[in-house]
Predict the structure of Chorismate synthase.
Amino acid sequence: MSGNTIGTAFTVTSFGESHGLAIGCIVDGCPPNMSLSEADIQPDLDRRKPGQSRYTTQRREEDTVKILSGVFEGKTTGCPIALLIENTDQRSKDYGKIKDQFRPAHADYAYQQKYGIRDYRGGGRSSARETAVRVAAGAVAKKYLAERYGVKIRGYLSQLGVLKPDMNNFDWNEVERNAFFCPDVFKVGEMEEYMQTLIKEGNSIGARVNIIASGVPAGWGEPVFDRLDADIAHAMMSINAVKGVEIGAGFDAVTMKGTDNRDEITPEGFLSNHAGGILGGISSGQDITVSIALKPTSSLRLAGRSVDIHGQPTEVITTGRHDPCVGIRATPIAEAMLAIVLMDHALRNRAQNSDVKSITPQIPAQAPDESL
Amino acid sequence: MSGNTIGTAFTVTSFGESHGLAIGCIVDGCPPNMSLSEADIQPDLDRRKPGQSRYTTQRREEDTVKILSGVFEGKTTGCPIALLIENTDQRSKDYGKIKDQFRPAHADYAYQQKYGIRDYRGGGRSSARETAVRVAAGAVAKKYLAERYGVKIRGYLSQLGVLKPDMNNFDWNEVERNAFFCPDVFKVGEMEEYMQTLIKEGNSIGARVNIIASGVPAGWGEPVFDRLDADIAHAMMSINAVKGVEIGAGFDAVTMKGTDNRDEITPEGFLSNHAGGILGGISSGQDITVSIALKPTSSLRLAGRSVDIHGQPTEVITTGRHDPCVGIRATPIAEAMLAIVLMDHALRNRAQNSDVKSITPQIPAQAPDESL
Amino acid sequence: MSGNTIGTAFTVTSFGESHGLAIGCIVDGCPPNMSLSEADIQPDLDRRKPGQSRYTTQRREEDTVKILSGVFEGKTTGCPIALLIENTDQRSKDYGKIKDQFRPAHADYAYQQKYGIRDYRGGGRSSARETAVRVAAGAVAKKYLAERYGVKIRGYLSQLGVLKPDMNNFDWNEVERNAFFCPDVFKVGEMEEYMQTLIKEGNSIGARVNIIASGVPAGWGEPVFDRLDADIAHAMMSINAVKGVEIGAGFDAVTMKGTDNRDEITPEGFLSNHAGGILGGISSGQDITVSIALKPTSSLRLAGRSVDIHGQPTEVITTGRHDPCVGIRATPIAEAMLAIVLMDHALRNRAQNSDVKSITPQIPAQAPDESL
Amino acid sequence: MSGNTIGTAFTVTSFGESHGLAIGCIVDGCPPNMSLSEADIQPDLDRRKPGQSRYTTQRREEDTVKILSGVFEGKTTGCPIALLIENTDQRSKDYGKIKDQFRPAHADYAYQQKYGIRDYRGGGRSSARETAVRVAAGAVAKKYLAERYGVKIRGYLSQLGVLKPDMNNFDWNEVERNAFFCPDVFKVGEMEEYMQTLIKEGNSIGARVNIIASGVPAGWGEPVFDRLDADIAHAMMSINAVKGVEIGAGFDAVTMKGTDNRDEITPEGFLSNHAGGILGGISSGQDITVSIALKPTSSLRLAGRSVDIHGQPTEVITTGRHDPCVGIRATPIAEAMLAIVLMDHALRNRAQNSDVKSITPQIPAQAPDESL
């Protein structure tokens, strides 16, 4: 009801504010007997961690995760897994001056209207700091999906403003080597330069992130409302700053003819993947391909017009520590959300269909890398 | 779990197959004491009804809705409202030949893998015929939202292949006058011509539909997962053939700078609406603007390669009655889904926050028409 | 939210009023590939059907169920199963006079306070007529549980006022032969006599019904809140007129010592079953034993004091057709509810634990018949 | 799905094991702007705290609660409230020897069968230690219900084995003064004596606890499945060791005639309260009266027969620290569960029915104290 839980069979219930004592979540529904420790979760948290390059917020958080329950002698027990991340570097004084202002394009005004109260320190509950929790929970899902089903979930920055990686230079290894999760090593320099100009200017920029899940078995997803693509859209749009979601061909499908868009099938595999691995809301066995649009950060040093809590006009300048492009750190978050949705549907499908023995042929995925 | 219910406080549980006895739904959570009869629901069903122009499927269904429960002496009682639509024009013989084939880009293969069985007649549960049920349920939500909150939900076709209405000619009245829900009277002829060529060719085309909700009060939407935009994305992506969803500026935000994207505020109102009326997952009082991409129909007279249920290569030609552009009839469906989501959040917000008395100023929406 | 849906993985969403067009439900989550037809459901409906003896209401309803969806060529498809029962014998005129009265011990006053409106015809939504829907849905669950897991669910009347069957004469076959679901053939005459006196008097009486599920595998039930016993208690207490629920020893446990109450275990099986087959909220493999208390019918020909809708004192005499003991027809309803809960937990357990291979010994149930 | 969350509009998601790092929960859906601090929660935790008398387990836990989120400057914000209680006195060595045994009447065997693994230290997740979390969450609900609606929730021990308080000596103040929550000061000595004999013997005993909510407005509860009494039954039966639940007259209704059981109404109020304040699943405005049966503790120093994890016969003697009567400390737990259910239904009712203005007369409760 209050929207802090995602999932049905595999659920994540999140809590915490940017400048409170801690953030965390309860992961419920994870199958028992999977080995799990903090070391399985920390690497993804480290990928998302702030303050790692000059292109992200300078807030320093160790983001050390602690498992409080649900694991016994190194194995999951089937009981809820509580994950805790303490807030250590809260400089609340930075935010005192925005207490009485509604920053344009922030959640300030909407929270105030909804609740009649808001924790204004660092954006409180609306801060993207909450996404650390998602990354932690997603790591649990990723591990199970990989070990039990061989599913691999990866993402990359596919656009930074107008800058796009050249897909001919695409390299998954490169994604983990630069601060942008950019798959094209030759584009990284240009991105760095662009970000420096932007930071100097006090402005911010939008971005696009692509996420791909390979190895998803056919049959996951629940028609008609909780289609796999619908739940993915929900999860992605729930990430701070996301304004658009595409599955497969996405908006390109608008101008396509049926003969071009349909993915023909041969015994050797699908001949294309415009569907993004989902047919009728159910996975087809092909790669699941998702693309999301992230708006530019709204916290800017450049003054913007707004009103204060008394309805009087005011000028807002945000001097706190912020990402000049929230899209840069979005890759591990989007991967985590995709993992959570897939995990949920893996379990949901088992509830109803665990006895289904497919006697129909398995069509190979054969999704060409170019479809990314 | 099985995905046939949408909503939390206001729920719609759908049933029925394209060629079964009937389709229908149970609408639960509608507040009591609202006047309601079939006459309130039928008009939207008629807008979606097949066979009304040569540009949509020639299947003839009266789509007459019957209210089975939840209404007493013309008023809702707070009890579940069951809506029934009988199937009358099922020509199941049309589909006999596809029994053993997996039509490319259809749900056939995915359903077979998931359930080990499928009702292949007219696509069974995966048929877009199910969307009639959504339109009926959406009409109930629309009525309540309009009467209780003054919310107005409208949609239009914003793109048909490469053809776009000229926004200078935008006229809401025109939307209801032509077969395409096109707001530009001068574009209708071109669209007709294009569709005739396409039908002759045996091909299909994608489309884009925009939906707008005006008059939504600030404060609806539940952070962090069930944001209003996240739930809208879920609902939209659950519509057959939808492959992309945008809120506000959507993918255009990728190339925007923060200073251009943020919607500045003055006591007279917001100066722009790139956020699409949603901040931090909560409605801001501005127009809620949504845009969706629909892929071209997959059922084509032009042969496509596929495999049969034995894994052997086959050629698929679909001769049944189909829409050459599913996007054409999507407008009332998308409106209905937006209505269902808004209704759900109106009620959800009341559960927790019905005592909140806003002491903060109400910022006028002032969303310029061009933002559509 | 509005409470018309029960279950999580296997759900039943109910609709309909006593004197509306029809009652029915949507059963969602039933696994595919189970053979199912109306003939599988009708027998249980017939067991509950009114007007079969002089000891139950004289309303005559055929209670003929129709499957509207979810079954294709005689098999379930995994899609929602809509069940419809038309109301045929509604004598609404019988109820005109209670329109302005709140019958004591009825839902009239509470519905009016909650919704500000109520369908007073035959009790509307609060009528026990709704339980026909539960019996229909329960029949689907029963069939699956029996075929897939070998679970057998049976019930009987264990007390009618002060009259109790002699457990030495217990015979399951007898249960289906008399109008009371009484397992002791020698007690039936006494019960008939008692009921006739009661009917003459215009009064009613309470009852107790026991329900037993045999063959439930160990491991169903979800700690800590949705324990199997907790969900059973919920389902039983949701039946009209039920005021108490016991699992296993129930209230007898209050005066028992630990050494008497604990069910000791040997390799040959459990030595007793005071736990009612549930340990820590999870099934143990023993018989699941449940007992419920049903209050006497509140609709009486004997005048009772009440107030009318204007708050004025009034006398209420109910002349409609009613059961003098609602407990008599409760047996198939309680069986159905137990089936629905067990089915739900069977599927829920599969979601999370379908990979668990028990390496621990299976303790035989060995629950002696006397434990009933 | 995994059962660790209770509620729909007001939810409590629990985590933690008896001997893990911590236990806790996330309380979601609490309305904003209520003052809240640890001091509002601690008193109820202290009432439940172990080691306070010789009649409860000698484990010493401070049970100090920490609020991690959802409260800002002393007021709730509408965001999730995370509550944490660290485990401090875990003597895990006490439990080493039961690692390979299934203690009779414990959850050991059922957990092992369900999950294939179990945290055997102190019962792990199945330990009643988890109920501390419920008490903490219940305190939040109690506070809101009291402040917003004037609801008062209280409980007392109504039976200890065969010992019952004399209702003529009933005194709510006395309940808080003795270790048993016994309302009859003259019975306390007898109870102490009985418990000492029992402790010497190494045995345990069952108990009964009554809980009453006064001031609940008419109209809470959702027919037909999520009736207020059904949800109360669910919540009560989810408490460790509870084997029976009664609402109002409960099992006494079995032998009552309709004329005796119905609660007649006059403009001055209801003349009795056999319904326990709930009609048709909806609160009537009368006191809500609930009674629960608790089985005797299963952990005994007296040897019991069982099997080990290899299926071999064994003798179990439990030497850890345990309550000789779990019922003694159950009163605050049962109060908490009732508070959580009522809070949930208060909010659920607002979602759908916040516009209902009752024009019908409010019937006074007038529930005589004797009905307790």
About this structure: Residues 368-372 of chain A have pLDDT under 50 and may be disordered. The longest helix of chain A spans residues 330-353. The radius of gyration of chain A is 21 Å.
